[in-house]
Specification:
- The chain has 2 domains: about 160 residues, Helix Hairpins, CATH 1.10.287.1490; about 70 residues, no CATH class.
- Helix content is about 80%, strand content about 5%.
- It contains 5 helices and 4 strands.
- A hairpin with a 2-residue loop joins strand 1 and strand 2.
- Helix 1 packs antiparallel against helix 2.
- It is rod-shaped, with a radius of gyration of 41 Å.
- The chain starts with a helix and ends with a helix.
């Protein structure tokens, strides 16, 4: 393997890692958004329950006021009963009082239903508050983890860029230009091994002459199919040939 190929392989290794880091860094904002969304959802659920509890309490107070109003009216009618001397008027007032008391019973039944509902909501609020506490604790840890990961990956990326810059200085400019052109086009790799007569990039058969050049030539050889730079590796030699060496 030529020294240029060896250097390109090291550079390619750095480029692949840098690409991986870049992709992971681009995912960080989305992961942060998911963390915040979960915390916000838990907060929203709790706020909705508290609002529901307020509405139930407001309805209960309204019913309580209605009962108070009706009791005042009943007391007024009873006072009128004591003052009237007419039996017909007395009976009419008694009928009104009876109807008002029936309405009070219905209203008080509704109050009891609302009190039961309020108790259930209070239990849900307590449970949701605990959930929110746990969600916020997890979110805090996740924010810290994401921040640490982001910082570490950025530092590694800067280190890789510095290493790459130093390595590129030792590679011929025309070779680097070819490598970078292929890498921009192929994305995954620009330098690949010959694997049992097959290109390690496009996985197509390599002509014997090209394979022989990759094995013996110090010049750079490229795949006729995908244009990637080829190199020969003993790792992929047939067992018989390896033994012979």
């Amino acid at each position: 393997m030529s020294p240029s190929i060896e250097k390109l392989l090291i550079i390619q290794d750095r480029d692949r890692r840098a690409l991986q880091l870049d992709l992971e860094l681009k995912r960080i904002p989305g992961e942060r958004a998911e963390v915040e969304a979960r915390a916000k959802a838990a907060t929203t659920r709790l706020e909705e329950l508290k609002l529901k509890a307020k509405q139930v309490e407001s309805e209960r107070k309204e019913l309580e006021n209605q009962v108070g109003t009706k009791r005042e009216q009943i007391n007024k009618w009873r006072g009128q009963q004591l003052q009237t001397k007419k039996n017909e008027e007395y009976q009419t007032l008694a009928h009104e009082i009876q109807n008002a008391e029936k309405e009070i019973f219905k209203i008080e039944d509704k109050e009891l239903d609302l009190m039961d509902k309020a108790e259930k909501i209070a239990a849900e609020i307590k449970k949701e508050q605990q959930v929110l506490t746990e969600v916020n604790a997890v979110a805090l840890r996740q924010r810290d983890t994401l921040g640490q990961r982001e910082t570490a990956m950025k530092a590694e990326l800067e280190k890789l860029k510095a290493e790459r810059g130093a390595l590129c200085k030792d590679v011929d400019e025309s070779v680097m230009s070819r490598y970078e052109r292929i890498m921009r086009h192929r994305k995954d790799s620009a330098v690949v091994p010959v694997q049992h007569g097959i290109c390690g990039g496009c996985h197509l058969q390599i002509p014997p002459q090209v394979m022989h050049q990759a094995k013996s030539s110090e010049e750079m050889v490229t795949c006729d199919q995908c244009g990637r730079i080829l190199y020969w590796s003993r790792e992929f030699e047939p067992a018989a040939q390896t033994a012979a060496h």
